Amino acid sequence: MSQAFRRRIIKISIAVLLFVFVAFHIFYILAARQRKNEEIKITKDINSLELVKYKEDTLYSDLQTLLAISEKKHSDAFKGFIYERISFIYKCLSDDLNYYTSLGKAVYYLEKGKNFQTMLNLYADLIDYQYLPNGNYDLAEQILLKIEDIEQSEGIQEPRMQTTIYRIKGDLAYYEKNYEHAAQMYETSEQIIKDKGHLGFFLPIVIIHKARNLIELGRYDEAESVLEVIIQNEGQFNNTDYSFEDVVSKLMAIPLYQAECCLYAHNQNYDKLKFCIEELIDHAYKHSFERMALTTLQKVAAEYDLSPEMSGVVQKKIESLYSVIYIKDSKTYTELCNSQINSTVLSLQEDEFMRLEKQSNIVLIFSLTALCIVLALLYVQIKRRSYMDELTGIYNRRYLTKKLALNEKRHIPYSVLMLDIDDFKVINDTYGHDAGDIVLQTIGEILNYRCREKTIEAFRYGGEEFALLIYAGELLSPLAIAENIRHEIVAQKWQFDETITVSIGVADKTNTEKDMSIIKQADIFLYYAKKHGKNQVCSGINGE
């Protein structure tokens, strides 16, 4: 195998590796772009209620549609969005276990994919629908800190989310009985809505929560007038994009009935108070908000001067709520749900770690394999170059020594040609070393042309001296090859007006004296040829 051919193999191998690497990355980029376009379309269809309807008779088909989407390969941010929608449907179906499992997946993928907008929606829902209603204020505070971290690092541009966050801060202050701070948060939330224009039912939500807080501050008349405006203008706050009965009931109806219970108890309007208590408890049972209803009725019983009859009605409702809460133990239940979310997140993190570890191992194996191939090729190239003579492009004396030792070890029969350029010093002295280098290079090319992969190998022995190893199987005899080489060199035309000749000594391994190396024997014949006229071949083969 020639040096040029080996170099070609190395170049082709490197080119193949680069092609595979580039092709893989192009495929990955194109696939990622296609997934991104698909995700944008699906998100648009979901938000516009085209793909899923969220109606009572479509919930199961909506769920199957979203589950099918979740099983496909998508970005983490998009998967988080899909699982958030899946959790919403499970909640509508009252499937708590799957709700919290899906919620945990949503939390994991949204945080991993940095889908901040959907993360904020999910965090807000957790606080509004789980933690605050059931008295888990510490958990609500933790989630609020996460919201504030996103607010500081990413900023919040969406007006609905801005007003929701300030309203939630107000709610948390309200439940912690920091009513002055709650009033400030509600005012800020309301101002954002007024600055940004009509935002559907976000304005009445904030105003109702604000009115509930005004009652705690003792400002009953102001609270009553605010609620009257809301009730009278109820039709203005309908928004088909966000008209989910579940949201309206939890964030508007329950706080509204809480406020009205306190107002009617304060005004001693017992008929309306009874109606509001029934509505409050009905909504509380429906959404597991019993603690909110209980807190309100306890306040009514403790802080207002009720008639004996009304006091008895309120007390019975309180006892009923206690029974339900005792059975359900909402706080523990919520903590259990939170544990389910965290468990799901941890499980997904472990799965992701295992996947990444497996992927890393594959990449590592591939990289190491590629590295080993490259290093092996480089080693072969370096090793090959260490055996090559740079000037002539044929093997050097170091490789000749190795080949002779290997032939001796394997008892391989062979012949040696030792070739020396006649009067080479005269050429160097007369025409310069550059001319001498050209002579050496040309003779190297002549010898290399004579080489056969298994039968002839050419070497530069040193200076102007060369060697050939000839093995069994070569059609021509060593003497014939030597004569052909000598004639070809004599016939070679040079850039200077000289004829270059060579003297050659030929030795055969089978005829070499026992205590003399074959190289030594060929060298003796070579110098015999030089001493007896030069430009001739001398050999001990066949007695010549």
Structural features, described:
The chain is mostly helical and 544 residues long. 72% of the residues lie in helices and 6% in strands. It has 20 helices and five strands. Strands 2-3-1-4-5 form a five-stranded mixed β-sheet, with helices on both faces. Strand 4, helix 20 (518-531) and strand 5 (537-539) form a beta-alpha-beta unit. Helix 4 (96-113) runs antiparallel to helix 5 and helix 7 runs antiparallel to helix 8. The protein is rod-shaped, with a radius of gyration of 47 Å. Residues 237-243 have low confidence and may be disordered.
Descriptive tags:
five-stranded mixed beta sheet, 20 helices, single chain, mainly alpha, 544 residues
Topology readout:
Layout (H helix, E strand, L loop, with lengths): L2 H45 L11 H12 L5 H17 L3 H18 L2 H16 L5 H17 L5 H17 L3 H18 L5 H15 L3 H13 L12 H23 L2 H18 L2 H14 L4 H21 L1 H57 L10 H14 L3 E8 L2 H8 L1 H18 L5 E7 L2 E7 L6 H14 L10 E7 L9 H14 L5 E3 L5
Parallel strand pairs: 4-5
Antiparallel strand pairs: 1-3, 1-4, 2-3
Helix pairs in contact: 1-15, 2-3, 3-4, 4-5, 4-15, 5-6, 5-7, 6-7, 7-8, 7-9, 8-9, 9-10, 9-11, 10-11, 11-12, 11-13, 12-13, 12-14, 13-14, 17-18, 18-19
